[in-house]
Amino acid sequence: MDYERRVSIANEEKKIFRMSESYDAPMIRKALIERGFIEQKAQPYNSIYLNINYALECNRIKNMQEYEQVILYRVCGKRNPDFVWVSRHEHYYLYPDSAFVNRISIPGLSFVNKADLVKYVDKIQEILDNADMDNVIKQNSDYSETSDSEYETDDDDYDESQEESSSEYETVSEDDDENENNKNQAEKNQTTCMLVKSIRDSVSNEAIKLPRSYDVIDNSIEMAFKKDFRLGCALGVVMFLNEQPNIEDWFIEYGEDDDASQIQGQRLKALDFIIHVIITNIRVREGQIDKSHVTDKNCELGEPEWIYISRTHHNTVREKKKFKTPLGMKDIYVSRIKYIAEDIPYYFPERWHDGCNNIYLLKPCDSGNGYGILLLDSERKIINVARSTKRKYIAQKYIERPLLVYGTKFDIRQYFLITMHNNKFRAWSHDACTIKFATDEFTLDTLEENIHITNVTVQRRFTRKPNDKLPKNNAWDMDQLLQYFESIGKPNIWKTSIYPAIKKTLSYIAELSFRNIEILNGRFEIFGCDWLITDDFKTVLIEINRSPSMEYYTPIHVKVLEEVLSDLIKVVIDYPKDESSLSSTGRFEMIYEKDFSWIGNGLLPYQFSNESNL
């Protein structure tokens, strides 16, 4: 065989490639060789094949493929490869003159950084909110504001040992006339509430859904986390009570002749304040109260009140303790709880999937594959753990209402590709996904990782109990998930809702990331995106992973990864040659494109603007 001729042709066509030794190399190598590429593969210093004549004399050539690789490597010499596939981002800078390198440089804010991804989503949401806000203001301008005095309560004294008195129930113990006035006022505002619901639904459908996340080491962000966590406790109590089959049974009435101190149950002081806080937050969102005028006293939770509210949340949601109520007050509290609970999805749409338990994930920023993740439902524990180590953590709200498959939690690993060719920055989405299951059935009664953390490397440590409906290796492909959707009466939900939301989210992120990426033709990178589906089929982005694992854990991984990587070569090698047809991109779909011919190679787009890099 004429090795020199083969190398000469490959040189002329710029088809010399080099790969680092990694588990994701075989499929890439196969696809390149099929296209006439020749691998420039260096041999270990002690390889017998480095001395070809000696190897031949000793008849020690046992692997002709390796022998051929050595011959080709020696004929190629040490010329710069045209295509480079590396497993470490640091190697990006070793091949500045290569035409193709499977890494991009993100010196600005990076969406693969858990903290930076929050900033991306916040910025995108700000843009989306502003786009809708003009309509909100315009349509809401004709509606009058309601009084701020409703639901006020005396919150100066929260001594739990104090005997309950009628003054403690000022929030709900109104006379009949005032109750009637409140009812009339509610009827007058019905149209307003319907409008707000419509707007909230519209914004929610457009919004990017990422669990709320906080860098709890940052003092200013820590305060935002505390406010969020505490409001979550207040909302959690109301949602929990409203979801009970017989909410009336959660209130134990006692008469004037009864000794309240002898009755088992929680006092109502905290419940009064919970109602007040939620109502005040609703008015802020309606624009009836200027957010800057909201103080700790009339809305936010001060420390004494917070301790009381926290205890009430734990006792109600976790311990299932009931409330003791003066005779005649039960129906009033039940109606208030139901009334407020109906408004929560409208005014707090982002909270609906939070659930009632107020659980957060504490995720180390410098780790992947699920390592080091903790599930906590205590504000104090979250902050203490984050402060007790030099590792940087993100506190991320746990989605307590995930869609379950046969009672088991799952998430979706999907792939996202960025390419820079022919002066075009492009983002691509692939619809071949791996469905990753937890090992045991979902419950919020325990926070064990075998139930809640669906990363493959975590779940491999556990053994699934016999279950004919779920795989022993905790993995499905998309065909199996689509079959499940069909079995529950949702045959088109992936095509019409879930996957369009994935593509829209990634296109928004690509648009913002363009400003933070070093522009250089021939650079590309594939990312692993983890998505969660909620119980009402909303799509939530959990995180975007750099250098996603391409290991063949299961036959499902083999099938999915081989197709994704094969299609990647189609996008990177085949498509730039004929951009008039997308048929050469496999199942990768272009979701974003931007011309960068006005930017020099090796520069950042935001360097050309006085604006920030977002």
TrEMBL record:
Swiss-Prot/TrEMBL keywords: ATP-binding, Cytoplasm, Ligase, Nucleotide-binding
PROSITE patterns xrefs: TTL
Chain intervals for the UniProt region annotation (Disordered): 138-189
One Gene Ontology CC term in the entry: microtubule cytoskeleton
Listed GO biological process terms: cilium assembly; cilium movement
Compositional bias annotation for Acidic residues: 145-179
Main location: cytoplasm
Compartments reported by the entry: Cytoplasm
Gene Ontology molecular function: any one: protein-glycine ligase activity, initiating
Superkingdom of source: Eukaryota
PANTHER family xrefs: TUBULIN MONOGLYCYLASE TTLL3 (PTHR45870:SF2)
Protein name: CSON008287 protein
Provenance organism: Culicoides sonorensis (Biting midge)
Gene that encodes the chain: CSON008287
